[in-house]
């Protein structure tokens, strides 16, 4: 017979894994769209610029919507927010697939398709913007503070796994039809929403029906770490953006060879990031100081490898170091944030952090690609300066708020 303590432990474990699966699904949805929209858009007659605006509109909406989700989570609850976000995800992805299917069949013009998909992308981004903050807040509330960095690392790893699986889904399932992957991924998201509704309960959440006091984030001690989040995500999306340029220019490859090598390079970065976040951080229960220090050291080392090691092996080593560095840096930054605010502010903090990360994701490709146009080494040197500045800011924050970080 299972006693109540064992049952509670099993239930929390099931809830934890279901929520992490939701994050995997969100990662799949994000990267899948990046892979699938461009070729389908061209097929139905959309210009490349218009296709890119669909992705940009979604990213901009995410940044704005995530900022407001904190108060919504406090009001309707963390589990309801996840269910709403995953349901919205399922409906909008399937509707997008249907619109594109109709366009490919000639039943919709390119202009009509653009308007419908643009609208659906905005709704999709508004819905999923609340998923990460809800899950982060839930898992923090149900995790001992000593294991917080491991929990944050698992969140990052789950999303990274989804980002890897997205293009794989697009490639494998597209053999069944260009729009079939949309329906299958929508089904997965819908099933995840149903499972969360059935099995995840949040007995620790107290719904807030009164409007909480406004937070001036600029005056909060957590603000430097929100800026660090922006820099961390900016560096990842920026490196991803310029890597194809670097490989093609440095080794004089054609488009097919560049794409082939790029896939392996990106996989290397993601695998090392996941390895660190899923195994090393939880296994050794690393604290904030260790995580951020290791992340900066590995990050700077990777940029130096990009600058001075000009072989293909050098690129792979640099991406491995960069992925491992991000694997340490991300949970370190987010854990530090959660230690600097009260429990009743965690959902608004998570929403603000998601918004800042979205801002970094939007700015990274533009900034890094612009710097790359100056010289190949310029964006890497800029990241070295950025990481060293991050280290200086963290040293200042550690001197001022160090007591809070000793609990992690």
Question: What does the model show?
Answer:
It is built from 13 helices and no strands. With 408 residues, it is an all-alpha fold. It folds into 2 domains: 10-199, Up-down Bundle (Growth Hormone, Chain: A), CATH 1.20.1250; 216-402, MFS general substrate transporter like domains (Growth Hormone, Chain: A). GO terms for molecular function: transmembrane transporter activity. The chain crosses the membrane at residues 17-37, 49-70, 82-101, 113-140, 152-174, 180-200, 221-242, 262-281, 288-309, 315-340, 352-371, 377-397. Keywords: Membrane, Transmembrane, Transmembrane helix. This is Putative MFS family arabinose efflux permease. It comes from Marinomonas aquiplantarum.
CATH class annotation of the largest domain: Mainly Alpha
CATH level 4 superfamily of the largest domain: MFS general substrate transporter like domains
End-to-end separation in angstroms reads: 36 Å
Radius of gyration: 21 Å
How much is the average pLDDT?
Answer: 87
Beta fraction: under 5%
Number of strands: 0
The DSSP helix count reads: 13
Share of residues in helices: over 70%
- Which CATH-level-2 architecture of the largest domain? Up-down Bundle
- Overall, the morphology is globular
Q: Kindly report the CATH topology of the largest domain.
A: Growth Hormone, Chain: A
What oligomeric state is this? Answer: single chain
Instruction: Flag low-confidence runs.
Output: none
Find the structural class using helix and strand composition. Answer: mainly alpha
When the domains are counted, the total is 2
Order of helices and strands: HHHHHHHHHHHHH
Largest sheet: none
